[in-house]
């Protein structure tokens, strides 16, 4: 999701939302390549964001809650 929003693939480019997703990925991934990549991508974005944008992205990451799965009524 972070790549989609950072590059604007099919959605408007949004660094705040991209940072949020990279931050969530880094926080929820076990140590290893995926974790390191999420941290690297998040930090690269932070280099071109304002402090206010970073703070907003961090707030959104803290407030994010996964949606419960939807059950189909078949």
Can you walk through the features of this model?
66% of the residues lie in helices and 0% in strands. It is mainly α and 74 residues long. It has one domain. α2 runs antiparallel to α3 and α2 crosses α4. It is globular, with a radius of gyration of 14 Å.
- Count all strands and give the number: 0
Q: Treating each run of at least 4 consecutive H or I residues as one helix, how many helices?
A: 4
Stretches with pLDDT under 50, minimum 5 residues? none
The end-to-end span amounts to 30 Å
Domain count, please report it: 1
Shape, principal axes of CA atoms: globular
Mean pLDDT: 93
Short description:
This protein has 74 residues and is mostly helical.
Entry keywords:
mainly alpha, single chain, 74 residues, 0% strand
Strand and helix map with partners:
Blueprint: H1 2-7, H2 15-28, H3 33-48, H4 51-63
Helix pairs in contact: 2-3, 2-4
